[in-house]
Amino acid sequence: MEQSFDQFNASLLYCDKCRKAMPVRERLLLILPDGELYDYTCQGCNSSIGSKTERAGLKQTMMKSGSGG
Known about the structure:
Layout: E1 12-15, E2 20-32, E3 35-42, E4 48-55, H1 56-66
Antiparallel strand pairs: 1-2, 2-3, 3-4
């Protein structure tokens, strides 16, 4: 079965300080040899509530397929 998505971005995550699901900001935290590390920050209290690593291989594949001919 074919995947219907390559990656996702969170728009709401549960925040322990606010005690509910809150909108988040995604910001680039580190550029690593094998990808990029992103941090999710609560828009209500500005605390860090999650992270994700985007692998370099996935990003390169997406760029290649997006520049079709």
